[in-house]
Amino acid sequence: YLDQAQLSANRARDLIRQMLTFSRGQRGERKPVAIPALLKESVKLLRSTLPSTVALRTSIDENVPAALVDSVQMDQVLMNLCINARDAMHGAGTIRLSVGLTENIDYECASCRKSVRAARMIELTVQDSGNGIPPEVRERMFDPFFTTKEVGQGSGMGLATVHGIVHEHNGHIVLETDVGRGTTFRVMLPPISQPVAETPSPTSRQAARVTREQLSGRVLLVDDEPLVRQFMSELLEGWGLEVSAHESAATAREDIERDLTHYDAVITDHTMPGMTGLDLACHLYALRPGLPIVLYTGYGDNLQSTDLERCGVLAVLPKPIEPGALRALLTRVLAPSKTTATDAAG
């Protein structure tokens, strides 16, 4: 149950990060992703979203090569197509999801109308048992704000979003539909030969929680959010560290100025009232060059590498913090203690 809660929290984190990226007009991060694994994870979310009157069937070819995609955006494509299918069936019927590799491609993209020829493409399919799409709707279905639903029932942005994401990934969309016989959307993505690093399963993560050496050192922690500050304090103390927590950069600066050699590392949030974490890092770096400073933030897009280097920032971690990434950083700069303990935080 805890592993599933962690998975859901990570998906929520990634979705929020994607929303922030989208709102700023920037592209998300694309990585080599195994599309069969992505579809399996998406199905877990879809099952809880669709009504019980909609049956979800899957057919997955495990040998499909990876694609260079933003997994959160691909989740969004699947979600929008499945919601579209649900509405086309009036909330009752069957949705079939499949992924496979198609060769000798020769077709016309349903959204951009271009002729597409390729030796191989990954095919991600969403098929419904609805009434099909009439010709007059097909002509405009990918237009922004076009919808056949009643006022308040839909924004008309679902298929427009699908179009935008798929084409940003150098893909195309094939549409197969007949009135009274259902609709099939085939999302075609170019494959890559680059291997995908496997994500540890909950079982393997549990097996990896072995006895490790505790860390040793004094850490200055700065965060204006009480809940985050408390969580971070407990996390660090659980690793054997002595933590002094502050709610503002100003009080943290005063603390460290009293004894410049007292702390072994500084961990600070970036976005805080009065003085940002980067401002604090610059001030501390001027007082004590070489002091390890870790910055964490949910708004790191505007942080320039030159500014981080100038202020002596060791690393910038995205919020919410991944304990494993933070511990790996601290392990490099802090000495282990003589005692050991089981690391349950990753």
Please tag this protein with its features.
346 residues, alpha/beta, 11 helices, elongated, disordered C terminus
Set out the fold topology.
Layout: H1 2-23, E1 31-33, H2 35-49, E2 54-60, E3 67-69, H3 71-88, E4 93-108, E5 115-128, H4 135-138, H5 158-168, E6 172-177, E7 183-189, H6 202-207, E8 211-216, E9 218-222, H7 226-238, E10 242-246, H8 249-258, E11 265-269, H9 277-287, E12 293-297, H10 305-310, E13 313-318, H11 323-333, E14 335-342
Measured by DSSP, the beta-strand proportion falls in 25-35%
Distance between the termini: 16 Å
Quaternary organisation: single chain
Largest sheet: 5 strands, mixed
Shape: elongated
Question: Looking across the biggest beta sheet, what order are the strands in?
Answer: 2-4-5-7-6
Q: Which structural class fits the helix and strand makeup?
A: alpha/beta
Number of strands: 14
Order of helices and strands: HEHEEHEEHHEEHEEHEHEHEHEHE
Please state the average pLDDT score.
84
Work out the helicity level. 25-40%
Please count the helical segments: 11
Radius of gyration: 25 Å
Query: Unreliable stretches, pLDDT < 50, 5 or more residues?
Result: 199-211, 339-346
